Amino acid sequence: MAKVGVLEDDSLMRLALKESLKAMGHETVFDAGTAGEFVGKARLQHIEVALLDVHLGSGITGIDVGFTLRGIYPNMGLVFITSFADPRLISSSNLDLPQGSIYIEKAKIESIESINGAINDSLKGGGKARFGSNSDLGMLTNKQIEVLRLVASGLSNSQIAMEQSSTVKNIEAVISRVIKTMGLRDIETQNQRVHMARAYFRYRGVKLDD
Questions:
Q1: I want to staple 77 with a disulfide (CB 3.0 to 4.6 A). Which of 16, 49, 50, 63 is the partner?
Q2: In sequence order, which residues have a C-beta less than 8 Å from that of residue 129 and are 6 or more positions away?
Q3: What does the alpha-carbon distance between residue 68 and residue 40 come to, in Å, rounded to a whole number?
Q4: Are 104 and 79 in contact (CB under 8 A)?
């Protein structure tokens, strides 16, 4: 049994996680819907594992919370649960995960045993946290992910170059590598930037009509 804290901004999902933890024999010491509330409670109540939603709306992310907790409690288990295939799609503020944390996608949770295994692994120290290891995203560099995000935001190559303190030529080269790495189709009648944007939103868990 582990003493767990749950951070999830969706109240229904938070309740489901608490019920799942109870069914597995773990104790939910506290839960919270915002980052500030969670960190405040974590400073006052002892937990062994933090179960963190990554996307908490605009601003601070669950990853930011994870780094804060790792700085305060070096041995705390960290488990991130999210609909995002790769946390780098969320924000450019943190392009890494805390050492030893576990990252699982909600869509790939087949049973509560998946969560139980992640909790147990986190208590053992986890391992080297990896991004999108089961998708093409895992082969993209941080810079390529950021350029993909900016393309999906509707920025032109010149605007992205200014944002990245780079040149238009370099940005064009990055985009070409992203297209090749992700295996995006080359269709003359369709804009490949549209394909990039659609891929970006699919990996963010957004359902798109084909």
A1: 49
A2: 96, 97, 98, 99, 100, 101, 102, 103
A3: 11
A4: yes
Reply yes or no on whether the pLDDT at 12 is more than 50. yes
Q: Is 203 exposed, middle or buried (0-12, 13-18, 19+ CB in 10 A)?
A: buried
DSSP label at 142?
A: H
Checking DSSP bridges between strand 49-53 and strand 27-32, what pairing results, if any?
unpaired
Taking the domains of the chain in order of start, what are their residue ranges?
A: 3-123, 136-203
In this structure, whether the domain defined by 136-203 belongs to CATH 1.10.10.10 is answered with yes
What per-residue confidence (pLDDT) applies to 190?
A: 56
Tokens 């104790």 appear where? 27
Q: Between 190 and 171, where is the model more confident?
A: 171
30 in Cβ contact with 41 (< 8 Å): yes
CATH topology of domain 3-123: Rossmann fold (3.40.50)
CA distance linking residue 113 with residue 119, whole number of Å: 10
Considering only CA atoms, which of 134, 39, 23, 132 is closest in space to residue 78? 39
